[in-house]
Amino acid sequence: MSPKLTETVDAVIEQRRSTRAFLPQQVERELVDDVLAVASHAPSGANAQPWMVHVLSGSALQRVTKSVQTVFDDPDLRHSHREEFDYYPSEWIEPFKARRRRNGWDLYGLLGIGREDKAEMLAHQRRNYEFFGAPVGLIFTIDRIMGLGSLMDYGMFLQNIMIAAQARGLNTCPMAAFNVFHEVVRDELSLPESEQILCGMALGYGDPEATVNQLVNPRAGLSEFVVYHD
Questions:
Q1: What is the pLDDT of residues 116-143, one digit of tens each?
Q2: Domain spans of the chain, in order of start
Q3: I need a surface site. Which of 95, 167, 214, 228 has the fewest CB within 10 A?
Q4: DSSP-assigned letters across all residues of 154-194
Q5: Any bridge partners for residue 119, and if so which?
Q6: pTM
Q7: Which of 174, 141, 137 lies closest to 158 in space, CA to CA?
């Protein structure tokens, strides 16, 4: 691999950010297809390719957004929904606890949301369910017959999508928030019970002027997660 290509690949990976404000500019279907086609080259055990992608735009995007936000806006309904699987641990330990806390307060601090301003926090959370204003929303599902190993394959596929999008001038935000309201999304998209919803993703052109898009999350140094066995 040439030094120039290495530099380009590294730059695309390092410049990827979770974008939480998008321009109204539409994304052509051909471009979405291009991103997904490239991403499909992700490796998977036995070449099973366990991913299924539901692409939402236009009225379909609005319909799903409205349905989920209607549930979110009703406290009783909101608290009656539960994730179908545990994305986060039931009890946080270090160093993950500190990283999670910093991520939250860095984001809210950037937005000027104080620790006691629960209403503003809730309003920001609500933005998840409109894909942060992105013109394209992606919902990812997997057949329930697949094992835990397929989730590793799926992660590589999701990363490929984000990197391929970044290389084409698009921005993304992977979203676990839809897991809580998987039943609502399932009903709106008429998904069979055999398909389990894993997560969503916003896709579009990020707003470079939006304050929320200035957040840069720190990464742990190699000494924190690398162990050499010589």
A1: 999 999 999 999 999 999 999 999 999 9
A2: 21-90+129-207
A3: 228
A4: HHHHHHHHHHHHHHTT-EEEEE-GGGTTHHHHHHHHT--TT
A5: none
A6: 0.96
A7: 174
Ordered strands of the 171-175 beta sheet: 52-56, 136-143, 195-204, 171-175
* DSSP per residue, 73-108: HSHHHHHH---SS-SS-SS--TTHHHHHHHHHHHHH
CATH of 21-90+129-207, one of 3.30.10.20, 1.10.3720.10, 3.40.50.360, 3.40.109.10: 3.40.109.10
CA 3 to chain centre: 31
The mean pLDDT value for 203-219 works out to 96
Strand partners, 56: 137
Q: What is the pLDDT of residue 215?
A: 95
Terminal Cα-to-Cα distance of the chain (whole angstroms): 27
Reported confidence tier of residue 1, pLDDT bands at 50, 70, 90: low
Alpha-carbon Rg of the chain, whole angstroms?
A: 18
pLDDT interval class at 102 (50, 70, 90): very high
Q: What is the DSSP string of 93-149?
A: -TTHHHHHHHHHHHHHHHTT--TT-HHHHHHHHHGGGGGGG-SEEEEEEEETTS-TH
CA distance 49 to 211: 37
3-state secondary structure of 200: strand
Nearest to 16 by CA among 200, 172, 221: 172
CB 38 within 8 A of CB 126: no
